[in-house]
């Protein structure tokens, strides 16, 4: 759809007052029409004057006229300059003929004595358009004629905003034109102070303007039609109260460029955009489940199958971790499980982006701790459950065991039986034992469950021994124990030194020359951006501090918030500097390399730490360069800058043909914007994206306790309920992630069938029919 061009003109100010007895005076903006529309305007001027009152004070006007438009679109224009030249337009009063004037009734039309040189259509006048000067109106029941006039003014304002943003809409890809236009309509409605009108419409059961985000123009149109029908003794059958082709702006289909803005059409468009990104809906719940996975998906070959079987249909890989070899294997396993289970599964890969993270640390010792559960007196309640198998044979139910030990030995497992005791000396030189309790089959063989009743530290090279009769024994050697994660512990009041070069602390993790714990960050942007007094956060806001001093290679931070016993801070943890001025490029050199892999292997790419339209333009250029018109795009909103510019980012993304969505990355977003702002921010993102028909991913700490401990909190369950307004809910890694996916899928299914359950609950209250 090619929108018409804009022609500017000046118009004589007209003041039209509609006096309703005891109801005060309504004021609306001036309208004017081009000469070419004179005949048409004369035919409708009577109905408009009798339904909308105008109060102009030399306001600047804009008029749009185009051959393929059946009506003139006119609206007040915000202008800083008064230097206009009249371009063949006449004022509204000049177009009124004698017959029109006869039908004005009690309307008094007169020219304003005020000049136009110092007049602007400012914010006060905008609110005045939709407010009544007499507050006594609130004491009366809903006046349909008054309410109808207000709603028509809103309607014109919404159309005005659409035309005022015609240049932006013309740049949008044709598949997103309706959605982009509805976003403009939504923003225009939000810019007005129409709380009183909303309340009148809602209390009368006509329309709730708070719930019309995805179909603004269609809802306003429907409300106007209803109000026209509800007006008592208002008009006869032969009198048009409003130009039908304006009211049916959403239904004009004669031109091939016409767009249907009706409620049904807009809802269908939103569903199409969602299906383009995530694929067609597979069941009634119509909400996708995304799960973040990493190297653990390779170590446990059944994990991806369990996730997909439990209801996950999107697998997310974070390119900030692991490498292409790991990513390739994860994708191969995901596609294999998807085909075997005959359930669709898409792959999203997040670019690392310019996110600040702590640097690497030395690998820790290859030691695993086996810890039985004890009561308050120290007595063992539950022995540690240990899975024993050959290398590569993962346990059938990973969450059911506390540790996995791979043992290298040809005949060792052939000689193990239920009840055997395996003796060993742990890494501290203490004698410990494992008692075999079960033999289980696994995907690539079999293994045993053994119980450990005393705390032990087992490492690569530990010898397990089966004692037999006649003094014979069989031995197996523990192998492939993963290295323990290294970390430092920081406490409130302590100091932390951030060092630019990783090599400075590779030799040891401990205390620096100034007596502070030390960590690395190899991003020069951090050291160039912070100054003393700036707040700084680590690990998604779990640790906070204030910058005490800076140099070329070091930043000294005083810790102001941590857990009472001290907080652990390890490698690859986030660093946020919300109050510092820092510039990030749209895509890093690593992102460009990873994008090549994503283009060949994934269905969607996540753009991390996007901040402004310039970043989106860089993304657009890279996608166009690689001819990736079908690759899905996910904009991760995780900074204050991205939130502030969200409508512009969406309009920019709509210039691509690619399907796209938005992720509410609540981890970094809460740190950047403040915890107290998070609730309102996520609601605003949902509303804006709903208006733009953009699918939303609800992310960060969803069912986190369930994922990590196996037991959810009440707040997590209600958070899922809030997340159901999004198109997709994302879960992060955890020992019980498969159980969490199953629980989430059950919750979503229960909510989708709640209507059926409600009918059952209502049966005792009503007699059988």
Q: What's the Cα radius of gyration?
A: 33 Å
What is the percentage of strand-forming residues? Answer: 15-25%
Helix percent band: 25-40%
**Helical run tally:** 24
Low-confidence stretches are 1-141, 235-240, 243-256, 504-514
Structural class computed from helices and strand pairing: alpha/beta
Query: How many beta-strand segments?
Result: 36
The span between the termini is 53 Å
User: What is the 3D form?
Assistant: globular
Going across the biggest sheet, name each strand in turn: 9-10-11-32-33-34-35-36
Oligomeric composition of the shown chains: single chain
Mean pLDDT: 77
Biggest β-sheet, characterized?
Answer: 8 strands, parallel, barrel
Account of the protein in words:
The chain has 769 residues and is an alpha/beta fold. 32% of the residues lie in helices and 22% in strands. It contains 24 helices and 36 strands. A hairpin with a 5-residue loop joins strand 2 and strand 3. Helix 4 crosses helix 6, helix 12 packs across helix 13 and helix 12 packs parallel to helix 23. The two termini are 53 Å apart. This is pyruvate kinase.
